[in-house]
Amino acid sequence: MKRVLGSVRARATVAATVVVAVALVAAGAAVLLSLRSNLIGQANAQAEADALEVARQVAADVAYADLDLDDGDETPVKVVDQRRRVVAAGEDLESIGLPDGAEARASALSTTDDDADRGEDENENEGEDEETSGGGIPTAGLVSEPVLLGEGTAATDHETREYQFAAVKATTRAGVTLTVYAGSPLSAEQDAVSTALTTMLIGFPLLLVTVGGATYVVTGRALRPVEGIRSEMAAITASEDLSRRVPEPDTHDEVARLARTTNETLAALESSVERQRAFVADVSHELRSPIASLRTQLEVAAAHPELLDLDGAVEDTVRLQSLAADLLLLARLDAGERPPPDARFDLAEVVREEVSSREGVTLDGVESVVLRGSRNQVCRILGNLLDNAARHARDRVAVTLRTTSDWVILQVVDDGSGVPRADRERVFERFVRLDESRARDDGGAGLGLAIARDIAVRHGGTLAVTDAPGGGASFDLRLPLNPPAPRSAAL
Questions:
Q1: Orientation of helix 310-334 relative to helix 448-458, angle to 10°
Q2: Which SS3 state, helix, strand or coil, does residue 95 take?
Q3: What is the model's pLDDT at position 382?
Q4: Cα distance between residue 438 and residue 224, in whole Å
């Protein structure tokens, strides 16, 4: 059962069928109750009309034997006196079984004979042309309002059926008060309700089967693209070919959006994997040269100690150490590491310290700028920018620090040849070195600017390169004065 209901298609079909079933049962019950109520109301009205008709005959002093009683099982009628003796009844009527309390409700209209006499004296001059009287015993020649007694039974021709009964009192001109009981059959109501119930019991299952089948087919068609996406994703997982894409249905619904989003995710994943592969290849290439050089020097030193190039070995070791530190920092940044939420530092102080340790670098800046973030990482940005400027500058490197209402702007400007417009984004890619910089490079691996931009972005800022006013390159670092609190913890 769990495996069957594990399908979205099956669950949707079951859910739709259950909802429709509940709705049909509720609607069917309402229809049956309304139909029964209406038919019972019609039976009550007919019973009242029949009782009133016979009561008017009684009030008009029609002889008991001449009363027009609709005989048979359609209108069982009997007339009883105040002692509850039957004085007239339908020819085929055998017995009437009134509902509980019916006799009491009918008797509630009567009083004692003395009360009747008093009522006649009080009303002898009133309402002689009226057809009915209100409560109590009607005056001579009049009838009372009908009283509904409810559902009872009557036996005719040895067959018992159910009826709705009504009672009416009538007083003859001679002053005799009689009670007329008349019934209207419930066979029409029972037949109609039975027919409607039978129709529902036959039609509802067929309708539920139709709804379930239609839901199953429609859901299957709607989910067919999802199965295509799933199967293609399974094939991509098995083949590890991230260049493949899932089929996109030619619709504008949620499934189409899912397919497009899946393909966008695959494209981003493919790009990330390609970058990772390129990164690993570049790392291998960058590590190969210093390791090979260091190994050669050590092998020569082992064979000929007097030929040991100690300065070169130290230089290669430092280069390896610097490259390992850069790679470790990149790995931490790629892992989403962000500055601690409560870390603060004075950027102006950092800039003064870094500039003071370098020759030929001028500074024009504010006295104090307190920022939120990692002091060491922002110092790393400045150091990488100054190293890059020193490699490309002819004579001058200038640092400017200023603030706006929302940002602090740090500019590092050199008077070199600048960066071509086509390469201004490419220089921030990892292991990218322009031809000129490669020729003049003193050992850098092309990671400095990439690291600087990654740190800037994780501090909520930006890093871009433009043309310097006097020629050369201007690297502009913008950091927010009031950045939102970082989500990660300490570095």
A1: 30
A2: strand
A3: 92
A4: 55
